[in-house]
Amino acid sequence: MAQQHDEGVKIIKQMLAQEEEKYKCFQVDHKGILWFNGRIVVPKDHQLCKQILDEAHLSKFFMHPGSTKMYQDLRQNFWWTRMKREIARYVSKCDICQRVKASHLKVAGVLQPLPIPSWKWEDISMDFIVGLSNTS
Ligand SMILES: [Zn+2]
């Protein structure tokens, strides 16, 4: 974990030193690392956030996790402001996820005829006719 050297971390540490009630959920350990309820505070460092998100998201072997799943996993260990929103934005920018989503959302176009079955009764389709007038 890189050093926490950002403005936000500095401010929170100052508030802690002044024993601000609101900042009680933060703790500083003996190494000077800032924690939020047992989760490490990730400084506003674009590279670092990206690294954490990449690690949680990019897998060659499995489906990419969605933002809810990623948030559930990452929140066990990490905390930063607007974390949930940033994860959602990260996932929305992932090329692979967009392609997967697009293939699930194929636009309904012209009705496709069923392929000619290669065996009897392989495909059965029915049309329901409604709205006929009653026989007299
Ligand atoms: Zn993805």
UniProtKB/TrEMBL annotation:
<dbReference type="InterPro" id="IPR041588">
    <property type="entry name" value="Integrase_H2C2"/>
</dbReference>
<feature type="domain" description="Integrase zinc-binding">
    <location>
        <begin position="45"/>
        <end position="102"/>
    </location>
</feature>
<dbReference type="Pfam" id="PF17921">
    <property type="entry name" value="Integrase_H2C2"/>
</dbReference>
<protein>
    <recommendedName>
        <fullName>Integrase zinc-binding domain-containing protein</fullName>
    </recommendedName>
</protein>
<dbReference type="InterPro" id="IPR050951">
    <property type="entry name" value="Retrovirus_Pol_polyprotein"/>
</dbReference>
